[in-house]
Specification:
Distance between the termini: 28 Å
Largest sheet: 4 strands, mixed
Order of helices and strands: EEEEEEEEE
Number of helices: 0
Strand content: over 45%
Helix content: under 10%
Strand order of the largest sheet: 1-9-8-5
Radius of gyration: 15 Å
Length: about 100
């Protein structure tokens, strides 16, 4: 599967759902950590859209490093086997000018 690509200045939307046995549920804590290829990690504000449905938006800075960025959603406060962990990645490509 191809990774999504973004350019500096674009907004990256990170949706996630949290379920326990096919039922949407709210964890006690949900954190998104974005890992750029260089520099410090970014922890954006997470928004609750409705029960078990969350998202975060992050605008890539104009000096965002080009390359592979990874991210991780981590949920806590559910039964240990249900604490979610979602990991994925995206590319940042150079501006056209």
């Amino acid at each position: 599967m191809a990774l999504n690509s973004y350019k500096p200045g674009q907004c990256v939307h990170f949706p996630v759902t949290d379920t326990v046995i096919a039922q949407l549920t709210d964890p006690s804590l949900l954190v998104l950590t974005i890992h750029p290829p260089t520099g410090p990690n970014v922890i954006p504000t997470v928004t609750r859209a409705s029960t078990g449905i969350y998202y975060a938006d992050y605008v890539l800075p104009m000096n965002a490093p080009v390359g592979l960025w990874s991210y991780r959603w981590q949920a806590t406060g559910l039964p240990p086997a249900m604490n979610g962990l979602v990991e994925d990645a995206f590319n940042v490509v150079a501006l056209d000018f």
